[in-house]
Amino acid sequence: MTKLSVCHLLLGYYPQTGGAEIQARRLAAYQRKQGLQVCVVARRRLADPVERTWPHYEEIDGIPVYRVPVWGKGHLAALTYFLSGLWQLFRLRHRYQVIHAHMLSAPAMLGGLAGRLLGKKVIAKASGGGFRVRSNISDLQRSPLRRWLFRHTLDRILAINREIAADLERLGFPPEQIVYLPSGIDVHTFAPSPKPPEQHRQRLGLPIEGPALVFTGRLRPVKNLPPLLESLALLKGRFPSLYLLVVGDGIERSKLEALVKKLNLSTNVFFIGNVSDVRPYLYAANIFVLPSLKEGLSNSMLEAMAIGLPVITTAVGGAPDLIENGVNGILLPPQLPPEDIAKAIVALLDDPDHAREMGRRARQTVMECCSFEVVGERIISLYRELLEA
User: Fold this and answer.
1) pTM (2 decimals)?
2) Strand 287-290's sheet: what is its strand order?
């Protein structure tokens, strides 16, 4: 049998660590372990003082990564990404059979047109849904030309949640072009720790006593962290030793730090910043909380579920596809008041046995539907189906 080969096409790649970048890197590494020939094509914005220092070629996790130069901003950046990317895909044309574009935006447009020109199969991943907010779906709604292009150049569109799949159908994409498939998680890397949280806290220099909450992710407005901090202030009287670990960084950090000071929570909230490995902080916590206003399917949530933490999250994006409220997690409406978040936290703190069982069921859920043994193999099977058709 011919060795399968794939080129992952996206805007950013490691060391960028957004959701799409994390998923692409994990999938590429898994596919390499399964014997596929894998390469990555991403952009390098020369107007960015950091990105311009990145090499145009390097190997990450043993995988060739090619960074195409992008000049300027706006339309010039879009044009140069397309031309540089098309030239790179042409140069590498003998190294891949399938183009796997991440994000139903510029990478999908480039990948779709390159696929038709070079005779390659093309899959694109749609990772953001909803018509009311800026997303892959709302962008498609505003662009009949883009919808036509994607219908005629993409062999399959992967929808990471059922909302996206339904939105694509409403926009006129045929059901046979759409594949619902959640994001993948390495359930062996993200697995429960045999050590109690207290041991991890000691190693991290965190308070040993008291229940701990954890949030992991980029500090952006869409993550909606102020109500979580306000809920902590409401609980401080009853749980004076309760604290929150905020793992990650972003444009909201200074605003959140100011709110912590205003709420007199300086001893109850720890801003950890970016870390290379979030697992020690997940292991140190009792409950994972994600109050986002919008998500495709949160990698942070999948990681927490995989290690067996009980999860409190909002019913946005792919969360309702995976979580049965009160069984393997707690689902809350988005834009909810701090009192409701506090009530959910108290329910788990008051019943630790139920919280542990919820975490156990959360891990079982991701093992059954989101492990790379499931998701990764389904994607590889999809490549084969397209090549054999």
Assistant:
1) 0.90
2) 269-273, 243-247, 212-216, 287-290, 311-314, 330-332
For residue 123, the enclosing domain spans 5-184+372-388
State the DSSP code for 93: G
The structure tokens listed for 163 are 């909302």
Q: Quick one: residue 245, left, alpha or beta (phi over 0 = left, psi -120 to 50 = alpha)?
A: beta
pLDDT digits (tens, 9 = 90+) for 20-67: 898 999 999 999 999 999 999 999 999 999 999 999 999 999 999 999
Q: Name every residue whose Cβ is closer than 8 Å to that of residue 194 and which is 6 or more positions away in sequence.
A: none
The answer to whether residues 274 and 302 belong to one domain is: yes
Q: Do 343 and 287 lie in a common domain? A: yes
173 and 241, same domain (yes or no):
no
* Residue 292's CATH number: 3.40.50.2000
Q: Please count the residues of the chain.
A: 389
Q: How many independent structural domains does the chain possess?
A: 2
In 3D, which of 370, 353, 227 has the Cα closest to residue 301?
370
The per-residue pLDDT for range 332-388, each reduced to its tens digit, is 999 889 999 999 999 999 999 999 999 999 999 999 999 999 999 999 999 999 999
Question: Between β-strands 330-332 and 311-314, what pairing exists: parallel, antiparallel or unpaired?
Answer: parallel
- Which residues are within 8 A (CB) of 94 and not within 5 positions of it... i.e. 6 or more apart? none
